[in-house]
Structures are given as structure tokens and as C-alpha cells.
Amino acid sequence: MAKRTKPLKAPDKLVFLLSFVPYLLEQRVVDVAEAAQHFGMTEEEIRDAVRLIATSGLPGATGTYQPNDLFDIDWDSFEDDDVIVIVHHVAIDDAPRLSAREASALIAGLQYLSASPENASSASLASLMAKLTAGASAAPSRLAVAETEADSSLAVIRSAVTGGRQLEFDYRNALGQAGRRRVDPLRILSQDADWYLQAYCHTREDVRNFRVDRMSGLAVTDAPIDDHSDREVPDTLFQVSDSDLDVVVDVAPETIPLLADYLADSTTVEVDGRMRVTLRLAHVHGLKRLVAGLPGLVTVVAPAEARAVVAEWATAALAGYGDEAPLIGAENGAETPDR
């Protein structure tokens, strides 16, 4: 790193010192010349910074500085060998640390990312997982992220996208309609826990979104994809259509951010402690998955078709419990569950 020609200003010097101390603690033993090279500073500036650190600390309960309230270094190594070794530090250990459960959750997420082809053998992810393990307040629980059927499908889809080849697969939509599709894969997107392929469908002759877990029998063909540079490909996963259905629901206030992609507009009205909003969905059957993902937090108000579909779905689900099924609340004289 090139040396600077001008001295550091006070704010820059503060930033440097805040970075310098963690660097020394991580390195444990470091030469002055090596530190100067790392920070792009002169060796004398590094020595001045070390001397300043040695006079810094945190006053004790009495408001005065005692020996253990200050940083300390190995002065013999520093003065004789130009080597920096911090032998006592203060305040650093007071930084908040992740609990074992928090670290485990983050590590599991990183393991999931590491399983994708583009992140295979990623040194940065491996390093981050090691730091989370070392920095947790206790040893994180060992977790394994199981590969799902969607993961294996994603590998095939990614090969088609990167290779610029057409993709064929069987697809069953939310209405249960199935058929063989041939598409030009454009890109892969995610929405919460679901993965989608955005592609030009030769059957529909337009750009469509396909949910990966509804695909089967995937095959990468030898045919190259067509040129779609003149076609407008939407940046977002869900697009407004004239055929969309507006559904009025009452939701718990904390769920509003989770429904941002579905909101028809920004209008909200408070009704009995909940927020009444209008969702825009491609079809009424999409409500079933949305309600299942927010149990007890969504009440379908209108239209009647939407309430009937959700009621039928809930009744079928409850039937699986047999005699232990809870009672469905009656409303307007009909046994229609609205959640």
C-alpha cells in the first residue's frame, strides 16, 4: 500500500485508531514495518500510535486511572525489536456478543448460501462462519441444512442460464393445471423461501415467472436462447395485470411489511385493532399460501369468492385432525372460517 504524503486529519486519525487496536489484537504479534505497510503509513506514525494507545484506557469506578485500566504493551519487544504486542487491553471485551442460538441461526443461513453453485468453495463465507463460531458467547449448536428438491432443480436451471440454453420442464401452476413448457431462461429470483425462474415462455409467447418447486422433469436442451434484448423484462418478481384480483383483508399491523409486494395501494384503515388493506393477487388460490404463512394474522374480508376458497382449504386441512379438529367459527349464519 502506498504511503501518504499528508498527515492525517483528526477524524481520519480517530478512524485509524479504531481500526488499529482490533488489528493488533487479531494479529497478536506484528512488526512495526508490517503494520505500516498494512495501513499505508510511515513506521514513525505507527510508533506514535502505539505510544498513544499505551496511554489510553477506561477509568475505574472511582473515576481515576489505575494500572489495569490502561492498555499495556510489551515495551522490551517494542523498543528493542520494533515488534508490537498488546499484553493488556480494556473495554474491548465489553462489546456485545452473539448468543449460541443467534450464531447457529446465522451459520445455518451461510451454509445454505454455500450450497449454491455460485458460492461453492467460497473462502469469504467459510471465513465468516469461522468468525461467528469464534465470536459467539458459547459454542454454537451444530446444524446441517438438508438439500431440498428445489435445490437440485436450481442447479439444472443455473446451468441453463449460464450456458444460454433453452430449458424444458413439466409445470403445475397454483390452479393445478399441468403442462410441458419450453422456455428461454433469463434469471433466477427469490421471494422469501421460494425460488422463481423468470423466463420467456414459448408456449405463452411472453415473459413468465415459474416457481421452482412446481417444476419437474427439467432438461437443458441444445437449442440456444433467442435474443430478448429488445424485450422489456420486469425488474420485480410480481407485476400488475388487468386480470389481477383485489382482495380485502384485515391484518395485524406488524405483517404490513411482509405484504408489501401484494399491496394494491398504500391505503390502510384501522378496524378493531387490525389494519384493513387491499391485496392484489394473480388468482384467488394464491391466498391459501399467504394465509398459511401468516397463521392467525390475516382475516379475509372480501370478495365472497376469496372467503369461500380459504374456507374450503381450511376445512380440508382441519378434516385431517379427525375428532380433535377445533371448531370453525361461524359468521353471518354460515360456518365459514375466515383465517
Automatic annotation (TrEMBL):
Annotated ranges, domain PafC HTH: 12-134
A Pfam family that the UniProt record links to this protein: WYL
Domain WCX: 245-318
Domain named WYL: residues: 154-219
Name listed for the protein in its UniProt record: WYL domain-containing protein
Species this protein is from: Agromyces albus
Lineage: Bacteria, Bacillati, Actinomycetota, Actinomycetes, Micrococcales
